[in-house]
Amino acid sequence: MISLDASQAECLVFTYKEGLLSAVAHDLEIRVGRFTVEIDPAAPSLRARFDARSLAVQRVPERDKRTIEGHIADDVLHTKRYPEITFASKRITRDGDRAEVRGDLTLHGATREIAATAHRKDGRWSTEVRLHQPDWGIKPFTAMLGTLRIQAVVTVRLILPEIW
After folding, report:
1. Mean pLDDT of the 45-56 span
2. How far apart, in Å, do the first and last CA atoms of the chain sit?
């Protein structure tokens, strides 16, 4: 079993703005600060746990950062009630520099099956998954009577070192 954390791997979430006042908002890059990924190369299988309270907004003015992080924790992910996000693979099929991963993602108290394709390049495996927030019971953030809102689909990028 191989265990990785945020010091060896990277998990980012990307959100995209829309609405009449989107010009005054930010598309966001959010770093997950605490997580573990356990991989069993022999099976192969992957299990991951992400601390929803550890999300940190990147590349925005400091005066906006804490406000945005507060909205993410309190108004979107409800991290006091749902502090952990988990993924457990059901099947991993590897073909050279490509791996198909299928498994269950538990987010915001709901579990759904997702599929992703990971690619190996320059000694790393990376994948991007698009998640439709309402599928997990998450209402995308809105402000100013809906004239500023975050799109329902977010992108999650996971990058792991080459380990098998």
Report:
1. 98
2. 11
Tokens of 79: 């991290």
Beta-strand relationship, 17-18 and 45-51: unpaired
Domains in the chain, number? 1
Tokens of 126: 């990376």
Q: How far apart are CA 67 and CA 62, in angstroms?
A: 9
Task: Of 160, 122, 157, 159, give the one whose Cα is nearest residue 28.
Answer: 157
Domain enclosing residue 47, as ranges: 2-161
d(Cα 123, Cα 9) in Å, to the nearest integer? 12
User: Residue 139 maps to which CATH number?
Assistant: 2.40.128.110
- pLDDT, mean of residues 33-58: 96
For the question of whether the overall pTM of this predicted structure is more than 0.90, the answer is yes
Separation of alpha carbons 103 and 47, rounded Å: 9
* pLDDT at residue 26 in the model: 72
Q: What is the 3-state secondary structure (H, E, C) of the chain?
A: CEEEECCCCEEEEEECEECCCHHHCCCEEEEECCEEEEEECCCCEEEEEEEHHHEEEECCCHHHHHHHHHHHHHHHCCCCCCCEEEEEEEEEEEECCEEEEEEEEEECCEEEEEEEEEEEECCEEEEEEEEEHHHHCCCCCEEHHHCEEECCEEEEEEEEECCC
